[in-house]
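dumping this here before i forget
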Amino acid sequence: MSTASVTSAVGTLSERFGDRLVTNAAIREQHGRDEGWHDAIAPDAVVFAESTDEVAEVVRTCAEHRVPVIPFGAGTSLEGHVAAVRGGISLDLTGLNRIIEVNIEDLDCTVEAGVRRKQLNDRMTREGLFFPIDPGADATIGGMASTRASGTNAVRYGTMRDNVLAVTAVLPSGEVVRTGTRARKSSAGYDLTRLLVGSEGTLAVITEVTLRLYGIPAVIGGAVCSFETLGGAVNTVIQTIQLGVPVARIELLDEAMVGAVNDFSGVQLPVAPLLLLEFHGTETSVGDEAGTVEQLASANGGTGWQWSTGTEERTRLWQARHDAYYAAKALRPGTKAFPTDVCVPISRLTECILETRADIERSGLVAPLVGHVGDGNFHLLVLFDEDDADERERAIGLNQRLIERALAVGGTCTGEHGIGYGKLEFMRIEHGAAELAMMRTIKSAIDPHGIMNPGKVVPGR
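structure:
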């Protein structure tokens, strides 16, 4: 990509979008940064689109000039997904913020990509419905689809992969396509919807999403339980899942994370390994399921089981859990926060978490652990002084060993953070040469000029 190409594309788009094309340094910097630890890489310009047609116009212009396009939603990703590693135009989709259609009887809705998760659920609550995917951050639905987001409810309701029925997307040529239908299943050809869900903007720009919805449960029960050991907490999770208890949420916090959450959110939880649980159903089913898990917890050294169907306390505890990222960062003010995640088969979860906790202690780093452990996914937030080369190398090494450990037991280098450019090197370790070649073939067939969020997801040859 030449400077002349960028200048020409920016000039053309400026004529069309006026003050909705921005070259201000601060705005460009903001659009080249997410909430992870990777360096910001600013785009050459930012365009604020407000419709699918406008997105298509931007993409056509960029295709004509061979200029990269980087979709941008809320900027809450963690692996450098929005960084303009090869320059280009950041396409801000927050103006696409309409809830287009709600089909109450069919339990689905269609929204534009810039609709926020909380905005959607505020609207759905009035209909007695909710959308369960909850990554913690108030992300946009388009961004959640693009990164195949997950979160605290995934153990019962699945991930974005399971809850997106169809998308409207703009291809690298500027052509608009709609993949999928509102039907709950189909065997009609290649599953293009799932190809785009999780593609991180490297194949197309998602502008509309059709989602599954769920009825708000008659009863929601929450529980909290502390454990003598980290292993006891994780074993309780494994036994709960293996028994088939339909728990909606199971979150693990190690003692370091519990201490951070107490300080940051003003809760008063025992500073010990902790499980937060939630059950959805009827009064009878929720009580029975909670009783079963309480027995498992007690057998594994669980103490202080607290159970409630009240909204206020449950909301307070889950908000504290959602603030865990910021709580952990506050443990070492002024240091860099390095978030990472892996996902492993549930039977290997205890082994992997205990080995990771021992590795953290050997490293001498502060790295609280938290996880959506009901599906084998857990996270570290590694804190290090970016001016200390030794600490930086220890943090990078800890992440490397974490991923190698997960891959060795049949896991993956990321359960929900995605690849971006931050985990690009691990794609070569997790996937064989033939698999990577297949991914490159798909990428080059759909995006022959490589303009869609280049330098992400699929490593070069």
